[in-house]
Amino acid sequence: MQIAFLTSLHESSTIKSNKIRKRYMANFAPDVLFQISSFPITNTLIDTLLVDAVLIGSAVYFTRHIKDVPNIFDNIVEYVIESFYSLTESIAGKNTRKIFPWFMSFFLFIVLANWSGLIPGIGSFGFYQTVNKKAELIPFVRSAASDLNTTLGLAVVSFVATHVLAVRTVGIKTYLSRYFSLNPINQYVGILEIISEFTKVISLSFRLFGNIFAGEVVLTTIGSISNFLAPIPFILLELIVGLVQALVFAMLTMVGMALLMVPHAEEHS
Amino acid sequence: MSITFTGGIIIAIGGALPALAIGLIGAKAMEAIGRNPDAQGKILPAMLLGMAFAEAIAIYSLILAFIK
């Protein structure tokens, strides 16, 4: 009896090794699903469209149905907006009205994009494609910030918005006096400031990309080990990480805007 | 004879000092809360923000570990 059991085990293992091993490892580069006349549509782009639909839909709904007696959803929205507005006010002071829309938009977009990667079906529902004799799963929708293109785009938008707002608020002369000056010490500081602006873009994009992409890899790895009850603490971790990274991105943008909108000498007082 | 760094060793070295930094931030925050428990609402968000910045450096080395 024992020997028969052992040989049957051996047989089943050889049968298994003949099948194509199908594993899903999150792809570093985004997966292009199809092209619309040489513009590639990736699965992360579809996720940004989803997040856009939710955001714009809820914004339109909440502004159209303002009542005197708010119900629970209005209360939540008002609470979130007020707490972020007071946070912006404590840092930005008199430029709050210009900075707050950017802060809130970045935060809401990134937090919804991060959380959308945890919805069942997103990142796991897709089709198989053979790449290098291995079958790879290409999901239909994937979390938006797990694509370096999205995070780089967000960081570039934040950079351009900061500088355009700064030029509009303090004028081009004061804005340029921060970076270029005849005094050699100030010029040295100015060169460091120019470099720090570019590293801010890189750091913002890579921080968000790394956190969300590493979270995807962790979830797929844990899922490949045991997909029942074991991923629950990691999904909770991803919820928290998504929220914190959205907050960090938005707060860095906001602080950068608030600092650039004040003349260089005043900000150190 | 040449030595190449790949994968695990990159993240192992690159994650050591950020881990120390996060621990120091947490320790100082605990100290501050212990001295003044009422200020917890102000210390906690600032601590989380500082930890997110320190973690970003480890994330940079994680990206490079993935590439290799």
Report the β-strand fraction of chain A as a percent range. Answer: 5-15%
Radius of gyration of chain A: 24 Å
Our Rg estimate of chain B from Cα atoms comes to 16 Å
Largest beta-sheet characterization of chain B: none
Unreliably modeled segments of chain B:
none
CATH class of chain B: Mainly Alpha
Which key features would you list for this structure?
heterodimer, A: 269 residues, mainly alpha, two-stranded antiparallel ribbon, two-stranded antiparallel sheet, 8% strand, disordered N terminus, B: 68 residues, F1FO ATP Synthase, elongated
Q: Can you describe this structure?
A:
- The complex is a heterodimer of chains A (269) and B (68).
- With 269 residues, chain A is mainly alpha-helical.
- Chain A has one domain (24-268).
- Chain A has helices spanning 2-18, 43-64, 72-92, 96-116, 148-170, 172-179, 184-225, 232-260, and strands at 32-36, 39-42, 126-131, 134-139.
- In chain A, helix 3 crosses helix 4 (96-116), helix 4 runs antiparallel to helix 8 and helix 5 runs antiparallel to helix 7.
- Residues 1-19 of chain A have low confidence and may be disordered.
- The model of chain B has no long low-confidence stretch (mean pLDDT 89).
- Chain B has one domain (8-67): Up-down Bundle (F1FO ATP Synthase), CATH 1.20.20.
- Chain B is an all-alpha fold and 68 residues long.
- In chain B, helix 1 packs antiparallel against helix 3 (40-67) and helix 2 (16-35) runs antiparallel to helix 3 (40-67).
- The chains are: A mainly alpha (269), B mainly alpha (68).
- The A-B interface holds A 28, 203, 206-207, 209-211, 213-214, 217, 244-245, 247-248, 251 and B 48-49, 52-53, 55-56, 59-60, 62-63, 66-67.
